[in-house]
Amino acid sequence: MAPKHGAQLLESTGLSDMRGRALRDLRISVTDRCNFRCVYCMPQEIFGRDYQFMERDELLSFEEITRLARIALELGVTKLRITGGEPLLRRGIEELIHQLAQLRTVEGHKPDIALTTNGSALRVKAQALKDAGLDRITVSVDSLDDAKFQAMNDVRFPVARVLDGIAAAQEVGLGPIKINTVVKRDTVDEILPLARYFRGTGHILRFIEYMDVGASNGWVLDEVVPSAEVVALIDAEHPLRPLEPNSLGETAQRWEYVDGQGEIGVISSVTRAFCGTCTRARISAEGKLYTCLFADSGHDIRGLLRDGASDREVSDALSGIWGRRDDRYSELRSGLLSDGKPTRKHIEMSYIGG
Questions:
Q1: How far apart are the C-alpha atoms of 320 and 324, rounded to whole Å?
Q2: What are the pLDDT digits (tens) for 259-272?
Q3: Domains (range + CATH), the chain
Q4: Cα separation, 297 vs 260, whole angstroms
Q5: Is the pTM of this model over 0.85?
Q6: Between 249 and which of 81, 126, 277, 306 could a Cys-Cys bridge form, CB atoms 3.0 to 4.6 Å apart?
């Protein structure tokens, strides 16, 4: 029997996987390229000058992405998130946002459209993104210390320019802005400075446990800082109290400052698996469908789109793939590690987005 929460999801969307989880969120990567070389995602020694990224004709076109999104919305998806790589590197990204903003969910509403970025081009792009119909934005910031930030992105990009991009996004109304911070054991000292900086700004700071995504970031369990430790550190200085989730399937546990100065979130894929309510599917830049962030293979949807498949055939393919889904990697992780390291290869995060 499907869990109760799964039954609730099924009632709201009509499409359910083998564990009763509905498809509500579609994350669409528009490029495998990024101008940063963050050590936990695209380390320089692997993604160097000679690395072969995808050619333009390998990527889904904006028209293909929009068609696929429209079919997904007809199946019950309500949220679209644009990812990468770094999505603002995709030329004309505003036009894609505009096309997606014209679509409607099964209830007749505009889909919620969000974008995750490293913030490097936000000062230039923010107004155009807002005008095109983007609703929300998430920016990655792992440190406020410029030397450390530049060491993390490994391309000498200053943190001040990212913070200026966040300010630009706020100015045009792309808020509240979510700030994502990946925490490793050697970056624990960044937690309180970040909390102090964003407290009271209206932005939502979210701390993400260092995850074993891909095969390039050298992940080991000992480097994971449990979210409970993050919450305890902040709570000791600025008392927190828990908040209810905004929606079923939300990945972040929410906490608000007792004095009303905003909220933080923690995403605990390693220590507190949320597989049971996962409503997300991912489309890679060249059109493969992945039903789990930790998957080792995907399903070719681009081939269907380019071989003349009808909307019904594409819809049936999506429905069939989701209906057979039984992913729960985070729940099984402890049994899939050897000496604290993964025993199987995962698709790189830069390939399918976060």
A1: 6
A2: 999 999 999 888 88
A3: 4-352 (3.20.20.70)
A4: 44
A5: yes
A6: 277
